[in-house]
Amino acid sequence: MITCVVRYVIDPSRIEAFERFGRRWMELVDRHGGTHHGYFLPGEGASDEALALFSFPSLAAYERYRARFGQDPEFVAADRIRDGSGCVLRYERTFMRPILPGSAEPERTPT
Has this prediction a pTM greater than 0.85? Predict the structure, then answer.
């Protein structure tokens, strides 16, 4: 499993547009083989930072999902929410390997 962590710098005056953007992407990730863990919006402290976390079974599964960007009309429409509203000022994506409750330890090769 691979988890994508997206760190956003958002325009706090456009938080409602960011929420619409986030809700749409949660649907798309879940529909196209991933599991969305949610968007995390400012609550206290910095008011211009938000996070999103979603997982795919493998990097190959993520790449199949990612190939739809700019092609699939639903993906294009979801990005229009972001681009048209200016709710996202910038973002960066990082991939992580989660350790989840109940997950087995990875097999180790002998040294």
Answer: no
